[in-house]
Amino acid sequence: MLVAPRVSQDAWTAAFAKEPAMSPWHLAQALIANSPLEPEVVAMMDSYGMDSYYKDLVAGAQNGGISMLSIQKSELSYFNGQKSIGLNDLTAAALNDSVPAHLDNARVWHQAYPASGSQQSLEALHIALGNLTAARTIVDAQILAGTEPAYWQVADLYLHQLEGNQPLESVGATTVALLQSIAHSGDYGAAQAQAWLEYLGLPQTEQIILPHSWHGPSHLKPAPATSVVANMLSAAPNPSNGAVYIMVQLPEGAEQAVLRVVDPLGRLIMEREVGTSNGIIEVNERGMTSGLYTAGLFVDGVDAARVKFEVIR
Fold first, then answer.
1. For domain 227-311, which CATH number applies: 3.40.190.290, 3.40.50.1100, 3.40.50.300, 2.60.40.1930?
2. Where are the domains positioned within the chain?
3. CB neighbour list of residue 225: distance below 8 Å, 6 or more residues apart
């Protein structure tokens, strides 16, 4: 990859014939980096039995479909995913044992090497350390930035109770109404609001918004409703370095449902009929590489729910 595009055919022959064999993903990366390839090199993919998935990736690079930039994004996604997993594990362990030295150690790592979710982790670590002032600084900054507003609204309410030395159950009707609104929103932060409501003994009733029947002219038919206030679709583990399990919860009365999964390049890699029962579907398609995948649930022809999951190789 570093000497692209000056790799000789002899070098490619040695790469394909190497024992033990090179990782097909690494070999595909090198081929993409050197694209467009000479016909003799393209033919080697067939003669050495390269997997069709990787052959398709390389073929896409011959007409500009994939570039080194997309490879770089994939590698960065992998690195950042590994870093996030490491930091999350460190934070979870520190919060579980509540040893001040461990909490502070996790705080230092998040501040030195921030990753996705670091601000949420730092807020939790500051609260566990009893530093409500530092936690308030983070919450106020995130609210001002407008990122993930629902999550930080809940965090603000929670921190307000701690600052006033008030128990979580001593909230008024206005706060309860706000928590209910967030819990029903489906936004990031809905789970936190739901957990608080559960603690208050006010569990939320699942609500599903389905499209209405339309009997007017076809050219005036409204776009299908896609807002679903329920976890019809979820993925775990996420991110994953192996199989991903999609949990499907269908609305009552659904007649047909199909699950479709597309890869980071938007290509369909799996389509499976769910039927009319809830269940768990394993996604472990051959050749899945690092990146962000999307699973979509189509209920009676309506794009009803979507969930994104990250694969890390």
1. 2.60.40.1930
2. 9-66, 76-199, 227-311
3. 209, 210, 211, 212, 302
Q: Per residue in 168-210, pLDDT tens? A: 899 888 888 889 888 887 777 888 888 898 889 887 655 544 4
pTM of the predicted protein model: 0.51
The single-letter code of the amino acid at 254 is: A
Tell me the pLDDT tens digit for each residue of 59-83.
Answer: 877 776 555 665 666 667 667 777 8
Tokens representing residue 38 in the block = 């000479």
